[in-house]
Every structure is written in structure tokens, then in C-alpha cells.
Design goal:
Mean pLDDT: 90
Organism: Pseudotamlana agarivorans
Order of helices and strands: HEEHEHEEEHEEHEEEEEEEEEEEEEE
Helix content: 10-25%
Number of helices: 5
Largest sheet: 7 strands, antiparallel
Strand order of the largest sheet: 12-11-14-15-16-17-20
Shape: globular
Distance between the termini: 42 Å
Radius of gyration: 26 Å
Protein name: T9SS type A sorting domain-containing protein
Number of strands: 22
Low-confidence stretches: 5-18
């Protein structure tokens, strides 16, 4: 879907000393154009040239497991999957027998010649399967992986290494690693939860890795905790982390019921929401639209305006069409405009697409993702002279909610057009109105408002983008 910025730097540095290597790329799952999808690339490690059929079988099995697992199942059409066939001279992975978390050797000590130098016992942990033994980058494997992806598939969003080994193991990082055995696909989903979706381990990850995140916090107030929308729903609560028997000042939303704690479990509701939020950030459900900046003759009435959408399964997308401020249609992938619908001069047709999935706790949700197409229709006594269009993608945040005195607003989009924000009381009175600029966070003082529920409306121009409930304590 995109070229990583750090990858470009790596390419520029590495091309001074290295020549690119090209490897066969096989498509495993194609949902659409690479520039519109999230692209996962599996890289083979410890597979000899004669074992590439096995690698493709493993990559296909991983893919099938992924997209039979919620929420990837519902959003499968937002992903492409490829397999990059990189042969190693020998099969398997190193197992030096140097782990200190158990008595070695638990498996025969081995040292094999593989392309990415995969090894167990990394950082002295028996099941930590990584491409460096201690992170000192003695073989500069991290750069090697960057270069392989840059030379063969620079549009990747996530590279993932599958190791030809039956011994349980895996690791996270920029390029997650997993073994190809029974639990391998589940280990892969757990590790990708870290690398692509910013999830944190729900077993205690250690003091150095503990941090505020989607599924980890030091907040214990149910009305303020990050997953407050899910509190007491689908087993979500506030559970303390322990390191052995030692309690830590960190909390998680579940107690042993999420794959981020144990790979034999599904994703919990909080982690599913985090994954879908990231999918919304990386993609746009509007795959294409028409007309697209065209000249239209008056004889062409009625004119069809159409969206081609990438939909979840089941389809949870909602849309709202407005013509010259007034609502024109809802939940339609196409509309027809007649001559009688238009005013002389400039007309504005807008469609706003949002996701109403019950996997997102939309009510009181902090972040709104809206995808917009604006058509400007110039109409005169001679008919329509031209139609111009522009697409915008908005991510709007409003937090905390509920709030006592201060509420924070921010948004980012494809264009610098500001938003108008109105706070409306339940009796319909506008109690606050302000303009919100692109990438400029703004704090709004609501201490003077009475306690209760308010409606917060977001507009681009005269088009309502979203309405969110605001609770003033």
C-alpha cells in the first residue's frame, strides 16, 4: 500500500554497497490494487529451493487462519497477501542452546546456513525465534530484510518471516518471525498484533516494554480507562498485571481471554477494535467513484453518481448523500441527479462514508473515520458545463469523554480544509461553535456547561460529517 520512509533511507544507504536480489513472488490472496490494500508479504527462511512448495503451503495455511479469525474475517477484502520465495542453503534455524530461562539443550544444538540467520535462544530465551541472537546486528540482518522487500515488493505494509522449523517459537519487531508448526499462524497473528496494529502483550511484557496503549494502561477509573466503551461488555474489565506473583501498576482489559496473552485464544473486543481502527487509518473503503472530473452534456440527464466500495462482511458501511446542504439519499452506492434537482450556478454534491460495525463501540467513541467525495456541479441555462470532484479522508478525535472541564479535539485529513464544530444541547441550542484546523490540536473549555449529554457535530463546509455524543460531568 505504501513505501515506508525508513525503507527509502535504507535503500539509499544500502545501494552504495549492495546489489539488489530478485526472488520469485507468488500471490496468495488478492483483493484489489496494491496501492489501495494492506499488503502482507511472507518471507521464507530456512526453506531450501526444493522446499518452496512447502513454504507456499505454509503461507496459504497462515493466510486461511488469519482470514477465518475475527476481525480479519470481516475485513478480509482490505488485504492482499504475497509470498516471497527466498531459498536458504540449509533447512531450519540455529539453536545454539544458550537460553537461560530453562536447562538447555531442550532441542538438539544446531547451526544451519539460512538466508536471514534465524535463531532460537535469542536474548537467552529458549522460544524467542529471531534473526539475531542478541540484537547487536552482527550480520546486519535487519537491513538485509529491508533490502529484500525494497527490491522485490516495496509496496508492502508488513513483512513477516516464516521459519521452516517444527519447534515452537516466534518474535515481534518490525519484521515478526514465527515457526511453521501447528500454532505458527496464531503466533503470527499475535506478533502482527504488535508490529502492525500497536497492541501490547497481555501477559506482563516487562518493565522496559510496559506503556500506555490500546490494551494497556495505568488508569483504573472505569469512566476514564482507554477501553471504557467496552467496560463490563464481552468480559472486558480492568485487570492488574503481575510479574510472577508481584503486582504491577499496569492494567489490561481481559484476564487470559485474548490472543495477546495466550495464542490459543481469539482477539478480545478491545484488540479487535484497535485492529479495525488501524485498518481504517491505512485504507479507504471508497475504491473508486464516478464521474471523476469530467465534462457532461445537458442531454445526459439524469446523471449517475456512483461509489465503488470495499465493504466488510457483513457490510457495515453507511453513507449519506447531501445536495446543496440538504440530505438527498442514504445508504445508496449510486444516485441519479436530474435537471430539476439543480440550482443555477454552482451545486455541491457530497457523500460521506463511515463504518457502523458493532465491533466498534461507536457511541462515545473517541475517534471518527470519515471518507468523503465532493462533486462541484456547474449548471447554467446551457446545461452542465463541468463536474469537478475531490476525495477527502478524515480522522477526528475527541477526548476525554466524559469530560469535566477540558475536552481535546484534533483531526487530520488529505486536505487542509478546516472543520466547523458545533456543540448542541439536548434542547437543540448551540452552546459552543469553533473551527478546527488540520493537524492543530485544540482544547475547549466546557466547565461553564451544565452537566448532561450534548451532541457534537462536525462539518466540512455545510456538510455534516459526523455527530458524536459528549457527556459533561
Amino acid at each position: 500500500m505504501k513505501i515506508h520512509c525508513f525503507l527509502i533511507i535504507s535503500i539509499l544507504m544500502s545501494t552504495l554497497v549492495l546489489h539488489g536480489q530478485n526472488f520469485p513472488l507468488e500471490a496468495i490472496k488478492i483483493s484489489g490494487n496494491d496501492d489501495k490494500k494492506i499488503n502482507i508479504v511472507f518471507l521464507s527462511e530456512g526453506y531450501q529451493a526444493s522446499e518452496m512448495d512447502k513454504f507456499i503451503t505454509n503461507a496459504t495455511s497462515f493466510t486461511n487462519t488469519f482470514f477465518n479469525t475475527s476481525p480479519f474475517r470481516e475485513y478480509a477484502d482490505y488485504f492482499n497477501v504475497y509470498a516471497l520465495k527466498i531459498p536458504s542453503n540449509e533447512s531450519g534455524a540455529d539453536h545454539p542452546g544458550t537460553a537461560t530461562d530453562l536447562t538447555e539443550p531442550a532441542h538438539p544444538i544446531t547451526n544451519v546456513d539460512t538466508y536471514f540467520n534465524a535463531t532460537y535462544d535469542a536474548y537467552n530465551r529458549h522460544r524467542l525465534l529471531y534473526y539475531e541472537i542478541d540484537g547487536n546486528a552482527a550480520n546486519d540482518t535487519h537491513t538485509k530484510i529491508f533490502n529484500v522487500l525494497a527490491d522485490n515488493f516495496p509496496m508492502y505494509d508488513q513483512g513477516f518471516i516464516i521459519v521452516n522449523s517444527s519447534h515452537y517459537g516466534g518474535s515481534g519487531g518490525d519484521f515478526p518471525v514465527t515457526y511453521n508448526g501447528y500454532w505458527g499462524p496464531h503466533v503470527a497473528m499475535h506478533e502482527m498484533g504488535h508490529s502492525l496494529f500497536n497492541l501490547i502483550d497481555e501477559y506482563y511484557p516487562g518493565d522496559a516494554l510496559a506503556r500506555e496503549g490500546i490494551n494497556m494502561t495505568q488508569e483504573t477509573d472505569p469512566t476514564q480507562v482507554r477501553w471504557k466503551n467496552w467496560y463490563h461488555t464481552n468480559q472486558a474489565g480492568i485487570y492488574q498485571h503481575y510479574s510472577g506473583a508481584v503486582p504491577k501498576d499496569w492494567y489490561k482489559p481481559n484476564s487470559g481471554t485474548c490472543i495477546m496473552e495466550s495464542v490459543d485464544k481469539p482477539f478480545c473486543s478491545v484488540c479487535k477494535e484497535g485492529i479495525i481502527e488501524k485498518i481504517h487509518e491505512l485504507t479507504n473503503p471508497i475504491d473508486s467513484y464516478s464521474p471523476n472530473n469530467t465534462t457532461v452534456d445537458a442531454e445526459n440527464f439524469p446523471i449517475e453518481f456512483e461509489l465503488q466500495l470495499t465493504t466488510p462482511n457483513p457490510n457495515t458501511l453507511k453513507n449519506r448523500w447531501n445536495l446543496n446542504v440538504f440530505e438527498f439519499a442514504t445508504d445508496m452506492e449510486s444516485v441519479f441527479i436530474t435537471e430539476a434537482d439543480l440550482l443555477k450556478g454552482t451545486n455541491a454534491l457530497t457523500v460521506v462514508v463511515t463504518d457502523d460495525s458493532n465491533l466498534l463501540m461507536i457511541d462515545n467513541h473517541e475517534r471518527v473515520h470519515a471518507y468523503i467525495v465532493n462533486w462541484t456541479i456547474n449548471y447554467s441555462t446551457l446545461g452542465i458545463t463541468d463536474i469537478e470532484s475531490v476525495v477527502n479522508k478524515l480522522h477526528i478525535s475527541m477526548f476525554p469523554n466524559p469530560a469535566n472541564t477540558i475536552i481535546n479535539f484534533e483531526f487530520e485529513g488529505n486536505h487542509n480544509t478546516p472543520l466547523t464544530v458545533d456543540i448542541i444541547s439536548m434542547d437543540g441550542k448551540r452552546v459552543k461553535s469553533f473551527t478546527l484546523s488540520h493537524l492543530r490540536p485544540q482544547q475547549i473549555d466546557i466547565s461553564h456547561l451544565n452537566s448532561g449529554i450534548y451532541l457534537t457535530n462536525f462539518y466540512t463546509g455545510n456538510t455534516l460529517i459526523s455527530s458524536k455524543r459528549l457527556v459533561k460531568n
